[in-house]
Amino acid sequence: LDGQVYLSEEAKQKILEKIGEDSEGDVKILSTTEKLKDKSIKKAAEVWDKWTEGLSDRLSEKINEWDSEHSPLWDREKVIKDYAEGFTSSLSTELENWGNTEVKKIVVNNLQILSKEVGQNLEVVRMNLQEVDYQINSNLNEQFNLAIVNIRADDLDINSVIKLEGYDDNASGLWEGLQLGGLTAGALFMFTGLGILPIIIAGGAVALISSFFNISGDEEKADMKMKQQVYHVGFQKFQESSEEILDKVCDNIAEVFYTQFKSVSTVIEQAILLYENLLEQQDKAHKETQSQLKVEKAFISAKQQQLIQIQKQLEIISTQISGS
User: Fold this and answer.
1) Residue 300 lies in a domain
2) What is the per-residue pLDDT across 292-306, written as a single tens digit (0 to 9) for each?
3) I need a labelling partner for 228 at 20 to 30 A (CA). Which of 70, 243, 297, 322 fits?
4) Is 180 helix (H, G, I), strand (E, B) or coil?
């Protein structure tokens, strides 16, 4: 506004209404985010239960894929460690496959719903800015566009949220490349670090497993027995950690939705900030105008006093002249 802001009372009221509308939209998006997050977590727990039902059989079929260059007769602990790593790798693969099929579908489908509401709300935000621009001849919408280009919320571009609305299940590139609050899509389903492998290969566990072995001279039988024992202990430890793993997945799902909301909320807050700055400029201009008016009024009053004094002096002079 060329540094000068003059808003009528009607214009100020309109801006306050727009701030209220944008704030309402922000609250609605948060509410939708919460509902979709809860829905996703509930569904993920359901498919988790179904997935774990057949997990034991699927893992037992992978025993023959485990390999070790050490002898089960002479290097038992090294063999056990190799097979523990094999078990962990097999379990990780199963978990990742589950995540990239079942959980991926759940999360992305609900993100699409959120994306649609986000798009609608941001369009309202933009239309409100354009309406104010038209009314007071400002450039708020232009400033808003520049803000969107630069805004990043936890490394997530607001455009990524909107693009999800048109997501295609066959377009895996979007899913693979999507940044989820500092997490890659695959990180949703990582259970590495939850302690399964260290528990299995720890000295105590190795001693426990070894104590069951009555190794004979048949290396092939000994090898299979070790694989089966590692599988048995490994799956038992997985079952003990199962709830913890699911909780971690659910926490990451929640983080995905909150990251989306944070990105959108940052954009809406930017629009509100533009309105507030405009009102502050108006208030500042009004105060400066009032201050200037006071100065001018004081100047005029001083001049009036000077005129009065001059008139009095003229009257005195006139009286003196008349009396002489």
Assistant:
1) no
2) 556 656 655 665 676
3) 243
4) strand
Per-residue pLDDT tens digits for 196-212: 445 544 444 555 455 55
Q: What is the pLDDT of residues 247-270, one digit of tens each?
A: 888 888 888 888 888 888 888 888
Please state, in angstroms and rounded to a whole number, the distance separating the CA atoms of residues 18 and 128. Answer: 6
Structural domains of the chain, count: 1
- DSSP assignment of 84-150, as one string? HHHHHHHHHHHHHHHIIIIIHHHHHHHHHHHHHHHHHHHHHHHHHHHHHHHHHT--HHHHHHHHHHH
The answer as to whether 303 is a domain residue is no
What's the half-sphere exposure (Cβ side, CA atoms, 13 Å) at 249? 29
Under a CB-based contact definition with an 8 Å cutoff, are residues 94 and 58 in contact?
yes
Q: Which two tokens stand for residue 281?
A: 């400029």
List the beta bridge partners of residue 179. Answer: 184
Q: What is the structure's pLDDT at 193?
A: 37
Which pLDDT does position 38 carry in this prediction?
95
Q: pTM, whole model, 2 decimals?
A: 0.71
Length of the chain equals 324
Indicate whether 135 belongs to any domain.
yes
What pLDDT does 35 receive? 96
- Nearest Cα residue to 249 out of 294, 315, 312, 194: 194
Both tokens of residue 215?
A: 């190794």
Domain contains 16? yes
| Helix, strand, coil % in the chain, rounded to nearest 5 | 80, 0, 15
> Residue 177: which domain range?
9-287
The closest alpha carbon to 144, from 159, 129, 134, 132, belongs to: 129
**How buried is 314 (Cβ within 10 angstroms: 0-12 exposed, 13-18 middle, 19+ buried)?**
exposed
Residue whose token pair is 């005129």:
307
Over its C-alpha atoms, the chain yields an Rg (Å, rounded) of: 36
Pairing of strands 183-184, 179-180: antiparallel
